[in-house]
Amino acid sequence: MTELFSSTPTALSRRTTLRAAGGGTLLLGLGLAGCRSAVSETEVPAGKSGAEPKRGGTLTVAVNADFTPSLLFAQSAQSLQQRLIYNTLTRYDDRLEPQPELATSWQAAADGKAITLKLRTDVTYHDGRPFTADDVIFAVKNLQNPLRAAQLRATAAAVTGFEKRGDHELVLKLAHPVNNLFDLFEFMIITDRHGIEDAVSGRKLNGTGPFRLTKWSPGAGLSFTRNDRYWQPGRPYLDAVEFRVVPQADALLSSLRSGQSQLSFGVPGKNLGVVKAAPGLAVSEYATGGGAYYLGVNTTVAPLDDKTVRQALAWAIDRERILKQVLGGYGLASATPWPKSSPAFTEAGRTHYTYDPGKARELLKSAGHTRLDLPLLHVNLPGETAVAEAVQYDLKQIGVQVTLQPTDPATAQKHLIAQTMPGLWTMGHGFAQVQPATLAVSAYPFNEAKNTSKFRSAAYTKVVREAWTGPATGARANALRQRITDTLLDEAFIIDLVIRGSVQVSAEKLRGVTLNKFSYLVLDDAHLVD
Protein backbone atom coordinates (compact mmCIF):
# COMPACT_ATOMS: atom_id res chain seq x y z
CA MET A 1 0.00 0.00 0.00
CA THR A 2 1.11 3.57 -0.68
CA GLU A 3 0.58 6.23 1.98
CA LEU A 4 -1.44 9.05 0.47
CA PHE A 5 -2.46 11.33 3.31
CA SER A 6 -2.34 11.46 7.05
CA SER A 7 -4.59 13.85 8.90
CA THR A 8 -2.54 15.85 11.37
CA PRO A 9 -2.74 19.54 12.30
CA THR A 10 0.30 20.26 10.13
CA ALA A 11 -0.62 18.00 7.22
CA LEU A 12 -3.35 20.03 5.55
CA SER A 13 -1.00 21.70 3.09
CA ARG A 14 0.84 18.55 2.02
CA ARG A 15 0.93 17.53 -1.66
CA THR A 16 -1.38 14.56 -2.10
CA THR A 17 -0.50 12.48 -5.13
CA LEU A 18 -0.68 8.76 -5.50
CA ARG A 19 1.94 6.96 -7.56
CA ALA A 20 1.58 3.60 -9.23
CA ALA A 21 4.48 1.19 -9.39
CA GLY A 22 5.48 2.68 -12.74
CA GLY A 23 5.36 6.23 -11.43
CA GLY A 24 2.08 7.39 -13.00
CA THR A 25 -0.47 9.26 -10.92
CA LEU A 26 -3.56 7.10 -10.52
CA LEU A 27 -5.66 8.92 -7.97
CA LEU A 28 -6.12 12.67 -8.06
CA GLY A 29 -3.05 14.81 -7.57
CA LEU A 30 -3.12 17.54 -10.17
CA GLY A 31 -0.99 20.00 -8.25
CA LEU A 32 -2.64 23.03 -9.83
CA ALA A 33 -1.65 26.54 -8.92
CA GLY A 34 -3.45 27.67 -5.80
CA CYS A 35 -5.84 30.58 -5.58
CA ARG A 36 -8.49 31.89 -3.24
CA SER A 37 -11.88 30.24 -3.46
CA ALA A 38 -13.49 33.55 -4.31
CA VAL A 39 -11.83 36.78 -5.37
CA SER A 40 -13.67 39.93 -4.39
CA GLU A 41 -13.69 42.99 -6.62
CA THR A 42 -13.67 45.15 -3.52
CA GLU A 43 -11.60 43.55 -0.80
CA VAL A 44 -13.72 43.09 2.30
CA PRO A 45 -11.88 44.49 5.32
CA ALA A 46 -10.69 41.89 7.78
CA GLY A 47 -12.04 41.74 11.28
CA LYS A 48 -10.07 42.93 14.26
CA SER A 49 -6.72 41.24 14.39
CA GLY A 50 -6.82 38.16 16.61
CA ALA A 51 -10.52 38.61 17.39
CA GLU A 52 -12.65 35.47 17.62
CA PRO A 53 -15.48 35.53 15.07
CA LYS A 54 -18.76 36.61 16.58
CA ARG A 55 -21.13 33.78 17.40
CA GLY A 56 -24.84 33.83 16.68
CA GLY A 57 -27.12 35.43 14.17
CA THR A 58 -29.18 34.25 11.23
CA LEU A 59 -27.95 34.31 7.65
CA THR A 60 -30.57 34.70 4.91
CA VAL A 61 -29.60 33.39 1.48
CA ALA A 62 -31.64 34.49 -1.54
CA VAL A 63 -31.94 31.62 -4.05
CA ASN A 64 -33.74 31.70 -7.39
CA ALA A 65 -34.75 28.02 -7.48
CA ASP A 66 -36.44 25.83 -4.88
CA PHE A 67 -35.04 22.63 -3.38
CA THR A 68 -35.87 19.54 -5.48
CA PRO A 69 -35.69 16.38 -3.31
CA SER A 70 -35.73 13.99 -6.28
CA LEU A 71 -32.44 15.59 -7.43
CA LEU A 72 -30.77 15.24 -4.03
CA PHE A 73 -27.89 13.16 -5.43
CA ALA A 74 -27.37 15.12 -8.66
CA GLN A 75 -25.29 18.25 -8.80
CA SER A 76 -27.45 21.11 -10.09
CA ALA A 77 -28.56 24.64 -9.33
CA GLN A 78 -30.61 23.08 -6.52
CA SER A 79 -27.52 21.65 -4.74
CA LEU A 80 -26.50 24.72 -2.74
CA GLN A 81 -27.78 23.35 0.57
CA GLN A 82 -25.98 19.98 0.40
CA ARG A 83 -22.98 20.78 2.58
CA LEU A 84 -25.09 22.49 5.24
CA ILE A 85 -26.85 19.20 6.02
CA TYR A 86 -24.32 16.60 4.93
CA ASN A 87 -20.58 16.07 5.02
CA THR A 88 -18.42 14.43 2.38
CA LEU A 89 -15.43 12.12 2.81
CA THR A 90 -12.87 14.65 1.59
CA ARG A 91 -12.75 18.18 0.24
CA TYR A 92 -10.33 19.74 -2.25
CA ASP A 93 -8.28 22.79 -1.46
CA ASP A 94 -7.75 25.43 -4.13
CA ARG A 95 -4.96 23.37 -5.72
CA LEU A 96 -7.26 20.35 -6.11
CA GLU A 97 -5.45 18.49 -3.36
CA PRO A 98 -7.86 16.44 -1.20
CA GLN A 99 -8.14 17.32 2.47
CA PRO A 100 -9.81 15.34 5.29
CA GLU A 101 -13.44 15.66 6.15
CA LEU A 102 -15.19 12.47 7.35
CA ALA A 103 -12.16 10.51 6.15
CA THR A 104 -9.08 11.36 8.22
CA SER A 105 -6.49 9.53 6.12
CA TRP A 106 -6.23 7.15 3.19
CA GLN A 107 -3.84 4.64 1.65
CA ALA A 108 -4.01 3.36 -1.91
CA ALA A 109 -2.73 0.16 -3.41
CA ALA A 110 0.15 0.50 -5.86
CA ASP A 111 -1.99 -0.93 -8.66
CA GLY A 112 -4.73 1.63 -8.05
CA LYS A 113 -7.38 -1.04 -7.43
CA ALA A 114 -7.98 -0.50 -3.72
CA ILE A 115 -7.99 2.36 -1.22
CA THR A 116 -8.16 2.13 2.57
CA LEU A 117 -10.04 4.90 4.37
CA LYS A 118 -9.75 5.72 8.04
CA LEU A 119 -12.86 7.54 9.25
CA ARG A 120 -13.60 9.97 12.04
CA THR A 121 -14.70 8.29 15.26
CA ASP A 122 -16.46 11.30 16.82
CA VAL A 123 -19.23 11.98 14.30
CA THR A 124 -22.96 11.55 14.88
CA TYR A 125 -25.98 12.20 12.71
CA HIS A 126 -28.45 14.90 13.64
CA ASP A 127 -30.63 12.25 15.30
CA GLY A 128 -27.73 11.07 17.48
CA ARG A 129 -26.80 7.88 15.60
CA PRO A 130 -23.02 7.32 15.23
CA PHE A 131 -21.43 7.59 11.80
CA THR A 132 -19.68 4.36 10.74
CA ALA A 133 -18.16 2.61 7.75
CA ASP A 134 -21.60 1.19 6.92
CA ASP A 135 -22.72 4.70 6.02
CA VAL A 136 -19.92 5.04 3.47
CA ILE A 137 -20.76 1.66 1.97
CA PHE A 138 -24.38 2.74 1.65
CA ALA A 139 -23.40 6.08 0.09
CA VAL A 140 -21.40 4.35 -2.64
CA LYS A 141 -24.10 1.75 -3.33
CA ASN A 142 -26.75 4.47 -3.37
CA LEU A 143 -24.95 6.29 -6.20
CA GLN A 144 -24.64 2.98 -8.05
CA ASN A 145 -28.43 2.66 -7.93
CA PRO A 146 -29.84 3.52 -11.40
CA LEU A 147 -32.92 4.98 -9.71
CA ARG A 148 -30.80 7.83 -8.40
CA ALA A 149 -29.96 10.78 -10.63
CA ALA A 150 -26.23 11.07 -9.94
CA GLN A 151 -23.54 12.24 -12.32
CA LEU A 152 -20.63 10.30 -10.80
CA ARG A 153 -22.34 6.90 -11.03
CA ALA A 154 -19.63 5.50 -13.31
CA THR A 155 -16.95 6.23 -10.73
CA ALA A 156 -19.08 4.80 -7.93
CA ALA A 157 -19.71 1.72 -10.08
CA ALA A 158 -15.96 1.12 -10.35
CA VAL A 159 -16.10 0.19 -6.64
CA THR A 160 -16.88 -3.52 -6.65
CA GLY A 161 -16.06 -4.59 -3.10
CA PHE A 162 -15.97 -3.43 0.50
CA GLU A 163 -13.88 -4.72 3.40
CA LYS A 164 -14.75 -3.37 6.83
CA ARG A 165 -12.02 -3.26 9.45
CA GLY A 166 -14.15 -2.24 12.39
CA ASP A 167 -16.58 0.66 12.43
CA HIS A 168 -14.13 3.30 11.27
CA GLU A 169 -11.83 1.73 8.70
CA LEU A 170 -12.91 0.62 5.26
CA VAL A 171 -11.25 -0.76 2.14
CA LEU A 172 -12.86 0.08 -1.19
CA LYS A 173 -11.93 -2.40 -3.93
CA LEU A 174 -12.06 -1.23 -7.54
CA ALA A 175 -12.58 -3.14 -10.75
CA HIS A 176 -9.94 -0.94 -12.38
CA PRO A 177 -7.96 2.19 -11.51
CA VAL A 178 -9.67 5.56 -11.84
CA ASN A 179 -8.04 8.94 -11.49
CA ASN A 180 -11.11 10.82 -10.23
CA LEU A 181 -11.88 8.94 -7.02
CA PHE A 182 -11.50 12.07 -4.91
CA ASP A 183 -14.00 13.82 -7.18
CA LEU A 184 -16.44 11.13 -6.05
CA PHE A 185 -15.46 11.62 -2.40
CA GLU A 186 -16.24 15.36 -2.57
CA PHE A 187 -19.39 14.95 -4.64
CA MET A 188 -20.90 12.08 -2.59
CA ILE A 189 -22.94 13.37 0.35
CA ILE A 190 -23.06 10.97 3.32
CA THR A 191 -26.75 10.55 4.01
CA ASP A 192 -28.65 8.54 6.62
CA ARG A 193 -28.88 5.00 5.28
CA HIS A 194 -31.98 4.38 7.41
CA GLY A 195 -33.92 7.36 6.06
CA ILE A 196 -33.21 7.47 2.36
CA GLU A 197 -36.87 7.48 1.25
CA ASP A 198 -37.62 10.32 3.65
CA ALA A 199 -34.72 12.23 2.13
CA VAL A 200 -35.69 11.86 -1.54
CA SER A 201 -39.26 12.86 -0.69
CA GLY A 202 -38.11 15.91 1.28
CA ARG A 203 -39.75 14.74 4.52
CA LYS A 204 -36.55 14.50 6.58
CA LEU A 205 -32.90 15.11 5.74
CA ASN A 206 -30.71 13.59 8.45
CA GLY A 207 -26.99 14.27 8.04
CA THR A 208 -23.79 14.94 9.97
CA GLY A 209 -23.34 18.52 8.75
CA PRO A 210 -23.17 21.82 10.62
CA PHE A 211 -26.88 22.62 10.30
CA ARG A 212 -30.12 20.70 10.73
CA LEU A 213 -33.00 21.18 8.32
CA THR A 214 -36.00 22.25 10.38
CA LYS A 215 -38.47 23.16 7.65
CA TRP A 216 -38.98 23.00 3.92
CA SER A 217 -41.74 25.21 2.58
CA PRO A 218 -42.12 24.22 -1.10
CA GLY A 219 -41.85 27.29 -3.28
CA ALA A 220 -40.77 29.48 -0.36
CA GLY A 221 -37.51 28.07 0.97
CA LEU A 222 -35.62 26.10 3.61
CA SER A 223 -34.90 26.74 7.28
CA PHE A 224 -31.83 25.43 9.10
CA THR A 225 -30.68 25.60 12.70
CA ARG A 226 -27.25 25.09 14.23
CA ASN A 227 -26.18 21.49 14.87
CA ASP A 228 -24.93 21.67 18.46
CA ARG A 229 -23.33 18.22 18.14
CA TYR A 230 -21.27 19.06 15.09
CA TRP A 231 -17.91 17.29 15.12
CA GLN A 232 -15.88 20.43 14.38
CA PRO A 233 -15.35 22.11 17.78
CA GLY A 234 -16.95 25.52 18.04
CA ARG A 235 -18.57 25.37 14.61
CA PRO A 236 -20.71 26.62 13.08
CA TYR A 237 -20.75 30.21 14.33
CA LEU A 238 -24.20 31.03 12.96
CA ASP A 239 -27.33 30.07 14.89
CA ALA A 240 -29.51 29.64 11.82
CA VAL A 241 -29.66 29.88 8.04
CA GLU A 242 -32.69 30.70 5.89
CA PHE A 243 -32.96 29.99 2.17
CA ARG A 244 -35.53 32.30 0.63
CA VAL A 245 -36.73 31.63 -2.93
CA VAL A 246 -36.67 34.92 -4.87
CA PRO A 247 -36.84 34.17 -8.62
CA GLN A 248 -37.54 37.72 -9.81
CA ALA A 249 -34.42 39.82 -10.46
CA ASP A 250 -35.85 43.08 -9.11
CA ALA A 251 -37.03 41.44 -5.91
CA LEU A 252 -33.66 39.70 -5.50
CA LEU A 253 -31.78 42.99 -5.82
CA SER A 254 -34.15 44.70 -3.42
CA SER A 255 -33.70 41.90 -0.90
CA LEU A 256 -29.91 42.27 -0.96
CA ARG A 257 -29.81 46.06 -0.98
CA SER A 258 -32.28 46.33 1.89
CA GLY A 259 -30.42 43.79 4.00
CA GLN A 260 -33.30 41.29 4.04
CA SER A 261 -30.83 38.83 2.49
CA GLN A 262 -27.09 38.79 3.05
CA LEU A 263 -25.98 36.31 0.39
CA SER A 264 -26.92 35.20 -3.12
CA PHE A 265 -25.38 33.42 -6.09
CA GLY A 266 -28.30 34.15 -8.41
CA VAL A 267 -27.93 37.82 -9.35
CA PRO A 268 -28.18 38.14 -13.17
CA GLY A 269 -25.01 39.37 -14.83
CA LYS A 270 -26.55 42.57 -16.16
CA ASN A 271 -27.45 43.56 -12.57
CA LEU A 272 -24.00 42.99 -11.06
CA GLY A 273 -22.92 46.53 -11.90
CA VAL A 274 -25.78 47.87 -9.79
CA VAL A 275 -24.75 45.61 -6.93
CA LYS A 276 -21.10 46.69 -7.11
CA ALA A 277 -22.16 50.30 -6.67
CA ALA A 278 -24.43 49.54 -3.71
CA PRO A 279 -23.01 50.38 -0.28
CA GLY A 280 -22.51 47.44 2.06
CA LEU A 281 -22.39 44.76 -0.66
CA ALA A 282 -19.43 42.94 -2.20
CA VAL A 283 -19.16 40.91 -5.42
CA SER A 284 -16.83 37.89 -5.51
CA GLU A 285 -16.07 35.43 -8.28
CA TYR A 286 -15.09 31.80 -7.85
CA ALA A 287 -12.62 31.93 -10.72
CA THR A 288 -11.59 28.25 -10.78
CA GLY A 289 -14.42 27.59 -13.22
CA GLY A 290 -17.12 25.76 -11.33
CA GLY A 291 -19.49 26.08 -14.27
CA ALA A 292 -20.09 27.23 -17.82
CA TYR A 293 -22.91 28.34 -20.09
CA TYR A 294 -23.38 26.29 -23.22
CA LEU A 295 -25.64 25.60 -26.19
CA GLY A 296 -26.71 21.96 -26.33
CA VAL A 297 -27.59 20.23 -29.59
CA ASN A 298 -29.78 17.15 -30.00
CA THR A 299 -27.90 15.20 -32.67
CA THR A 300 -30.92 13.04 -33.51
CA VAL A 301 -32.98 16.01 -34.74
CA ALA A 302 -32.45 16.78 -38.44
CA PRO A 303 -30.54 18.69 -39.72
CA LEU A 304 -28.61 18.84 -36.42
CA ASP A 305 -27.46 15.29 -37.09
CA ASP A 306 -25.01 16.89 -39.55
CA LYS A 307 -21.92 18.15 -37.72
CA THR A 308 -21.40 20.81 -40.40
CA VAL A 309 -24.66 22.42 -39.24
CA ARG A 310 -23.56 22.13 -35.61
CA GLN A 311 -20.23 23.76 -36.43
CA ALA A 312 -22.09 26.59 -38.16
CA LEU A 313 -23.94 27.28 -34.93
CA ALA A 314 -20.63 27.32 -33.05
CA TRP A 315 -19.19 29.97 -35.37
CA ALA A 316 -22.39 32.07 -35.23
CA ILE A 317 -22.38 32.97 -31.52
CA ASP A 318 -20.67 36.10 -30.21
CA ARG A 319 -19.26 34.78 -26.96
CA GLU A 320 -17.53 38.03 -26.03
CA ARG A 321 -20.81 39.94 -26.31
CA ILE A 322 -22.56 37.42 -24.07
CA LEU A 323 -19.73 37.72 -21.54
CA LYS A 324 -19.78 41.51 -21.47
CA GLN A 325 -23.44 42.38 -21.99
CA VAL A 326 -25.25 39.42 -20.44
CA LEU A 327 -22.88 38.17 -17.74
CA GLY A 328 -21.50 41.50 -16.57
CA GLY A 329 -17.96 40.65 -17.63
CA TYR A 330 -17.58 37.79 -15.14
CA GLY A 331 -16.19 34.69 -16.79
CA LEU A 332 -14.11 33.66 -19.78
CA ALA A 333 -15.40 33.42 -23.34
CA SER A 334 -14.47 29.92 -24.47
CA ALA A 335 -15.28 27.31 -27.10
CA THR A 336 -14.12 24.53 -24.74
CA PRO A 337 -15.41 23.61 -21.27
CA TRP A 338 -12.09 23.93 -19.44
CA PRO A 339 -11.30 26.77 -17.01
CA LYS A 340 -7.75 28.11 -16.97
CA SER A 341 -7.12 26.16 -13.75
CA SER A 342 -7.62 22.86 -15.59
CA PRO A 343 -4.69 20.92 -17.08
CA ALA A 344 -6.92 20.38 -20.13
CA PHE A 345 -7.09 24.12 -20.88
CA THR A 346 -5.37 25.49 -23.98
CA GLU A 347 -5.68 28.92 -25.50
CA ALA A 348 -6.00 27.35 -28.95
CA GLY A 349 -9.01 25.36 -27.79
CA ARG A 350 -10.59 28.35 -26.06
CA THR A 351 -10.46 30.42 -29.26
CA HIS A 352 -11.16 27.61 -31.74
CA TYR A 353 -14.59 29.05 -32.55
CA THR A 354 -14.70 32.85 -32.69
CA TYR A 355 -17.57 35.04 -33.84
CA ASP A 356 -17.74 34.66 -37.63
CA PRO A 357 -21.32 34.81 -38.97
CA GLY A 358 -20.05 34.82 -42.56
CA LYS A 359 -18.31 31.49 -42.08
CA ALA A 360 -21.39 30.17 -40.28
CA ARG A 361 -23.62 31.04 -43.25
CA GLU A 362 -21.15 29.41 -45.66
CA LEU A 363 -21.19 26.19 -43.65
CA LEU A 364 -24.99 26.14 -43.55
CA LYS A 365 -25.11 26.71 -47.31
CA SER A 366 -22.60 23.90 -47.90
CA ALA A 367 -24.91 21.62 -45.90
CA GLY A 368 -27.84 22.62 -48.10
CA HIS A 369 -29.58 25.15 -45.84
CA THR A 370 -30.29 28.87 -45.96
CA ARG A 371 -32.96 28.91 -43.25
CA LEU A 372 -33.71 26.69 -40.26
CA ASP A 373 -36.49 26.81 -37.67
CA LEU A 374 -35.60 25.25 -34.32
CA PRO A 375 -36.87 25.23 -30.73
CA LEU A 376 -34.55 26.26 -27.89
CA LEU A 377 -35.33 25.26 -24.30
CA HIS A 378 -33.97 27.43 -21.50
CA VAL A 379 -34.43 27.89 -17.76
CA ASN A 380 -36.99 30.61 -17.09
CA LEU A 381 -34.82 32.65 -14.71
CA PRO A 382 -33.63 36.16 -15.64
CA GLY A 383 -29.95 35.37 -16.16
CA GLU A 384 -30.58 32.19 -18.11
CA THR A 385 -33.26 33.87 -20.21
CA ALA A 386 -30.82 36.64 -21.15
CA VAL A 387 -28.28 34.06 -22.38
CA ALA A 388 -30.95 32.30 -24.43
CA GLU A 389 -32.09 35.59 -25.99
CA ALA A 390 -28.49 36.43 -26.94
CA VAL A 391 -28.11 33.04 -28.63
CA GLN A 392 -31.45 33.54 -30.38
CA TYR A 393 -30.30 36.92 -31.75
CA ASP A 394 -26.97 35.60 -33.03
CA LEU A 395 -28.50 32.57 -34.72
CA LYS A 396 -31.10 34.72 -36.43
CA GLN A 397 -28.27 36.57 -38.20
CA ILE A 398 -27.30 33.38 -40.05
CA GLY A 399 -30.85 32.35 -40.92
CA VAL A 400 -31.60 30.10 -37.95
CA GLN A 401 -34.94 31.14 -36.45
CA VAL A 402 -35.15 30.01 -32.84
CA THR A 403 -38.33 29.72 -30.77
CA LEU A 404 -37.63 30.00 -27.05
CA GLN A 405 -39.15 27.45 -24.69
CA PRO A 406 -38.90 28.79 -21.10
CA THR A 407 -38.89 25.94 -18.55
CA ASP A 408 -38.69 25.85 -14.75
CA PRO A 409 -35.30 24.74 -13.36
CA ALA A 410 -36.38 21.36 -11.96
CA THR A 411 -38.15 20.34 -15.16
CA ALA A 412 -35.19 21.48 -17.29
CA GLN A 413 -32.85 19.35 -15.18
CA LYS A 414 -35.14 16.33 -15.55
CA HIS A 415 -35.17 16.80 -19.34
CA LEU A 416 -31.38 16.96 -19.25
CA ILE A 417 -31.12 13.70 -17.32
CA ALA A 418 -33.82 11.89 -19.31
CA GLN A 419 -32.38 12.96 -22.70
CA THR A 420 -35.65 14.56 -23.73
CA MET A 421 -34.35 17.95 -24.85
CA PRO A 422 -35.62 19.54 -28.09
CA GLY A 423 -33.28 20.44 -30.94
CA LEU A 424 -31.45 23.12 -28.97
CA TRP A 425 -31.17 24.16 -25.35
CA THR A 426 -29.08 26.50 -23.19
CA MET A 427 -28.10 25.67 -19.64
CA GLY A 428 -25.05 25.60 -17.42
CA HIS A 429 -22.74 22.66 -16.80
CA GLY A 430 -20.11 21.87 -14.21
CA PHE A 431 -17.51 19.09 -13.80
CA ALA A 432 -14.72 20.71 -15.85
CA GLN A 433 -13.22 22.19 -12.68
CA VAL A 434 -12.07 18.88 -11.22
CA GLN A 435 -10.21 15.92 -12.75
CA PRO A 436 -10.75 16.44 -16.52
CA ALA A 437 -11.89 12.86 -17.18
CA THR A 438 -14.82 13.42 -14.84
CA LEU A 439 -16.51 15.73 -17.35
CA ALA A 440 -16.74 13.07 -20.03
CA VAL A 441 -17.68 10.15 -17.77
CA SER A 442 -20.08 12.02 -15.47
CA ALA A 443 -21.60 15.27 -16.74
CA TYR A 444 -24.96 14.69 -18.44
CA PRO A 445 -24.16 16.84 -21.52
CA PHE A 446 -20.77 15.15 -22.14
CA ASN A 447 -21.14 11.58 -20.84
CA GLU A 448 -19.52 9.24 -23.35
CA ALA A 449 -21.97 6.40 -22.62
CA LYS A 450 -25.22 8.35 -22.44
CA ASN A 451 -25.30 12.10 -23.03
CA THR A 452 -28.22 14.48 -23.46
CA SER A 453 -27.29 15.20 -27.09
CA LYS A 454 -27.57 11.47 -27.87
CA PHE A 455 -24.16 11.68 -29.49
CA ARG A 456 -22.48 8.28 -29.82
CA SER A 457 -18.95 7.53 -30.96
CA ALA A 458 -16.79 4.48 -30.35
CA ALA A 459 -13.69 6.64 -30.72
CA TYR A 460 -14.98 9.15 -28.13
CA THR A 461 -15.79 6.35 -25.69
CA LYS A 462 -12.35 4.79 -26.16
CA VAL A 463 -10.37 7.96 -25.50
CA VAL A 464 -12.54 8.95 -22.54
CA ARG A 465 -12.11 5.54 -20.92
CA GLU A 466 -8.37 5.67 -21.45
CA ALA A 467 -8.18 9.16 -19.94
CA TRP A 468 -10.29 8.09 -16.95
CA THR A 469 -8.40 4.89 -16.07
CA GLY A 470 -4.89 6.10 -16.90
CA PRO A 471 -2.48 8.44 -15.14
CA ALA A 472 -3.70 11.92 -14.23
CA THR A 473 -0.42 13.63 -15.16
CA GLY A 474 2.25 13.30 -17.79
CA ALA A 475 2.53 13.35 -21.56
CA ARG A 476 0.01 10.56 -22.19
CA ALA A 477 -2.59 12.20 -19.92
CA ASN A 478 -2.14 15.49 -21.77
CA ALA A 479 -2.45 13.78 -25.16
CA LEU A 480 -5.68 12.03 -24.16
CA ARG A 481 -7.19 15.26 -22.86
CA GLN A 482 -6.31 16.97 -26.12
CA ARG A 483 -8.04 14.21 -28.09
CA ILE A 484 -11.17 14.67 -25.96
CA THR A 485 -11.07 18.42 -26.58
CA ASP A 486 -10.55 17.90 -30.32
CA THR A 487 -13.58 15.59 -30.42
CA LEU A 488 -15.76 18.10 -28.58
CA LEU A 489 -14.75 20.90 -30.95
CA ASP A 490 -15.12 18.86 -34.12
CA GLU A 491 -18.42 17.17 -33.29
CA ALA A 492 -19.91 20.29 -31.63
CA PHE A 493 -22.71 18.40 -29.89
CA ILE A 494 -22.08 20.70 -26.93
CA ILE A 495 -21.14 24.25 -27.87
CA ASP A 496 -19.49 25.98 -24.93
CA LEU A 497 -19.96 29.73 -24.66
CA VAL A 498 -18.57 31.17 -21.43
CA ILE A 499 -16.71 29.56 -18.53
CA ARG A 500 -18.40 30.94 -15.45
CA GLY A 501 -17.71 30.08 -11.85
CA SER A 502 -20.23 31.11 -9.23
CA VAL A 503 -20.52 34.85 -8.65
CA GLN A 504 -21.25 35.64 -5.03
CA VAL A 505 -23.02 38.78 -3.84
CA SER A 506 -22.78 39.21 -0.09
CA ALA A 507 -23.14 41.74 2.64
CA GLU A 508 -19.74 43.14 3.64
CA LYS A 509 -20.50 42.17 7.22
CA LEU A 510 -20.65 38.49 6.21
CA ARG A 511 -17.34 36.62 6.38
CA GLY A 512 -16.10 33.05 5.98
CA VAL A 513 -18.38 31.88 3.15
CA THR A 514 -17.05 29.50 0.51
CA LEU A 515 -18.16 26.80 -1.92
CA ASN A 516 -16.75 23.35 -2.48
CA LYS A 517 -15.74 22.28 -5.99
CA PHE A 518 -19.31 21.15 -6.75
CA SER A 519 -20.80 24.47 -5.59
CA TYR A 520 -22.09 23.15 -2.28
CA LEU A 521 -22.31 26.08 0.14
CA VAL A 522 -19.87 25.74 3.07
CA LEU A 523 -20.79 27.81 6.14
CA ASP A 524 -18.73 26.15 8.89
CA ASP A 525 -16.68 29.34 9.36
CA ALA A 526 -19.31 31.86 8.23
CA HIS A 527 -20.06 34.67 10.67
CA LEU A 528 -21.49 38.16 10.82
CA VAL A 529 -19.53 41.16 12.04
CA ASP A 530 -20.83 44.46 13.37
Give a nutshell description of this structure.
The protein has 530 residues and is an alpha+beta fold. Helix content is 27%, strand content 22%. A hairpin with a 5-residue loop joins strand 6 (103-108) and strand 7 (114-119).
Your description of this structure?
This protein has 530 residues and is of the alpha+beta class. Helices cover 27% and strands 22% of the residues. The chain is built from 16 helices and 25 strands. An eight-stranded mixed beta sheet has the order 2-14-21-13-3-12-11-10. A six-stranded mixed beta sheet has the order 16-20-15-19-17-18. A five-stranded antiparallel beta sheet has the order 1-6-7-9-8. β17, α12 and β18 form a beta-alpha-beta unit. α8 packs antiparallel against α11. The protein is globular. The termini are far apart.
Q: Taking Cα atoms only, what radius of gyration do you get, to the nearest Å?
A: 23 Å
Give the neighbour order of strands across the main sheet. 2-14-21-13-3-12-11-10
Distance between the termini: 51 Å
How many strands, which pairing sense, and closed or not: the largest β-sheet?
8 strands, mixed
Strand content: 15-25%
Low-pLDDT regions: 1-37, 40-50
Q: What is the general shape?
A: globular
Number of strands: 25
| Mean of pLDDT | 90
Q: Can you count the helices?
A: 16
Structural class: alpha+beta
Q: Which percent range fits the helix content?
A: 25-40%
Topology:
Blueprint: E1 2-5, E2 39-40, E3 58-63, H1 82-85, E4 90-92, E5 98-100, E6 103-108, E7 114-119, H2 133-144, H3 153-157, E8 159-164, E9 169-174, H4 181-187, H5 196-200, E10 211-217, E11 221-226, E12 240-245, H6 249-258, E13 263-264, H7 272-277, E14 281-285, E15 292-297, H8 307-316, H9 319-326, E16 332-333, H10 347-350, H11 357-366, E17 372-379, H12 382-396, E18 400-407, H13 409-418, E19 424-429, H14 436-442, H15 458-469, H16 475-491, E20 494-499, E21 503-507, E22 510-511, E23 514-515, E24 521-522, E25 527-528
Parallel strand pairs: 3-12, 3-13, 17-18, 17-19
Antiparallel strand pairs: 1-6, 2-14, 4-5, 6-7, 7-9, 8-9, 10-11, 11-12, 13-21, 14-21, 15-19, 15-20, 16-20, 22-25, 23-24
Helix pairs in contact: 8-11, 14-15, 15-16
